[in-house]
């Protein structure tokens, strides 16, 4: 993966300078907080909110960021979070620290007890295209069906979605 890391870092640096890695406060297991690492795909000075809450997300997106997101390369630095023990490969995507609406739904459904993941059941069933209520529905379903085989199904669907660029709206 190092060649991909290097190409992404150089592309971001050439377009918008440093930093190339973006750190952001996210919600982990049991409503704890941690710093997530991602490749930066938005311009410096972009408001620190979920992309779908921006008035015109395209105005903030780096040219290279569009491709990095489409191919999910921006998530590769999440491997650092896995090594640190903040995340695992399969689980609900970690919410932003200020996404109280999503976290309230997760707490109510009991899915806040799951370790956040790089990919998850909600991501392979809609990713950016589904509302929070539907995401939490999928996360609860994952909690109830969690198994090695179910994780393999999610992994295969993740690879398929990346290859065919499904579920990314910005």
Strand order of the main beta sheet, please? 1-2
Structural class: alpha+beta
Q: How many strand segments?
A: 4
Number of helices: 7
Average pLDDT, all residues: 91
User: Can you tell me the number of structural domains?
Assistant: 1
Helix proportion of residues, in percent? 40-55%
- Order of SSEs: HEEHHEHEHHH
Percent strand equals: 5-15%
Name the poorly predicted regions: none
Question: Any idea what the shape is?
Answer: globular
Separation of the first and last Cα atoms: 24 Å
Kindly provide the radius of gyration, computed on alpha-carbon positions and rounded to a whole number of angstroms.
15 Å
Mind describing the biggest β-sheet? 2 strands, antiparallel
Short description:
The chain is of the alpha+beta class and 170 residues long. It is built from 7 helices and 4 strands, in the order αββααβαβααα. The chain has one domain (2-163).
Structure explained in plain terms:
- The protein is α+β, with helices and mostly antiparallel strands and 170 residues long.
- The chain has one domain.
- The protein contains 7 helices and 4 strands, in the order αββααβαβααα.
- It has a two-stranded antiparallel sheet. Strands 3-4 form a two-stranded parallel ribbon.
Tags for this entry?
single chain; 170 residues; alpha+beta; two-stranded antiparallel ribbon; two-stranded parallel ribbon; 7 helices; 4 strands; globular
């Amino acid at each position: 993966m190092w060649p991909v890391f290097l190409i992404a870092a150089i592309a971001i640096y050439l377009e918008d300078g440093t930093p190339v890695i973006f750190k952001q406060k996210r919600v982990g297991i049991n409503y704890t907080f941690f710093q997530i690492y991602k490749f930066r795909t938005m311009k410096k000075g972009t408001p620190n909110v979920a992309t779908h809450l921006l008035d015109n997300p395209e105005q903030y997106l780096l040219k290279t960021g569009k491709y990095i997101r489409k191919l999910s390369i921006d998530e590769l630095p999440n491997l650092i979070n896995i090594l640190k023990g903040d995340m695992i490969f399969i689980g609900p995507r970690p919410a932003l620290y200020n996404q109280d609406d999503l976290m309230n739904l997760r707490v109510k459904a009991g899915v806040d007890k799951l370790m956040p993941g790089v990919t998850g059941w909600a991501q392979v069933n809609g990713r950016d295209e589904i509302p929070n209520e539907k995401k939490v529905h999928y996360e609860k379903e994952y909690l109830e069906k969690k198994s090695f085989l179910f994780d393999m199904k999610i992994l295969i669907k993740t690879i398929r979605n990346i290859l065919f660029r499904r579920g990314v709206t910005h």
